Amino acid sequence: MCLIIDRGFGGQAMADHWIENHKRDSWRRQAKSSGYRARSAFKLLQIQEKFKLIREDDVVLDVGCHPGGWSQVAVELVGDGGKVIGVDLEPCQPVEGALLLVGDITESSTQERICSELDGRDINNIVSDISPDITGNWDIDQAVAMTLVADVLDFSLDLLCKGGSFITKIFQGVGVEELIVAVKPYFSDVRRFSPMASRNSSSEVYLVCRNFMPWIKRESTIRQTYETLLDVKLNPDEEVVEQEVYTSFKLRKKK
């Protein structure tokens, strides 16, 4: 994530304040003293403490793995009999016990590489701390973030085992409720969770999806369902007609 601060009037003071707060961040200090590469490692640890999703010998796919903190935690949790595969656009230093790939999770070449490395094993847990490149335009950034999560789901759910879990970072705002509705039919439990290690000023929250039900047939992609729901929400005054959509509910769609 790139932080851009205007260093004009008052900008330098804001920059200095942010840097000082960052240095004083207790989670950052704990991460450094514990050997984790980023404070975000404690977010996954706190999610694990709450939900107990990752088990010994599990296969974990870490999406958006840079700089490697979540992969470090996953390796500790799955032990020697488990497998951790991470993928990110940006290369990061190796994590002992994990295979870290460089690539775009939405591209077929990267997806094929992941499937090859799984060597026929199903994934037990998909964890994602992924964020798109930040433009500074909240509406654009939110839209890209939500569709990216939907794309990750559309690829990875086909590889997830019965009873598996999916954890992803999202940002509170437009589209969150629609994404949850699109995902809910395929898991027995879907909820939001805010780890203590998240900054108080952050709008981030984690979507925790438990107990995947692979027998529930998907007749449209998660992204298609999500975008249809969002379109209905953003255009409520246009003439609409009911259409059946496979999420155990009916929604309205423009003619």
Label the overall shape.
globular
Oligomer: single chain
Rg over CA atoms, rounded to whole Å, is 19 Å
Strand content: 15-25%
The helix/strand class is alpha/beta
Q: What is the succession of H and E elements?
A: HHHEHEEHEHEHEEHEE
Head-to-tail CA distance between termini = 40 Å
Q: State the helical fraction.
A: 25-40%
- In order across it, which strands form the biggest sheet? 3-2-1-4-5-7-6
Salient structural properties:
9 strands; disordered C terminus; disordered N terminus; two-stranded antiparallel sheet; seven-stranded mixed sheet; 8 helices; 255 residues; alpha/beta
Structural overview:
The protein is an alpha/beta fold. It has 8 helices and 9 strands. The strands form 2 sheets. The protein has a 7-stranded mixed beta sheet with strand order 3-2-1-4-5-7-6, with helices on both faces. A two-stranded antiparallel ribbon has the order 8-9. Strand 8 and strand 9 (249-254) form a beta hairpin. Helix 6 (138-156) packs antiparallel against helix 8 and helix 7 crosses helix 8 (222-234). The protein starts with 10 loop residues before the first helix and ends with a strand.
In short:
This protein has helices at 11-24, 26-34, 41-51, 69-78, 108-118, 138-156, 176-183, 222-234, and strands spanning 59-63, 83-88, 98-102, 123-128, 160-171, 187-193, 204-212, 240-245, 249-254. It has 255 residues and is an alpha/beta fold.
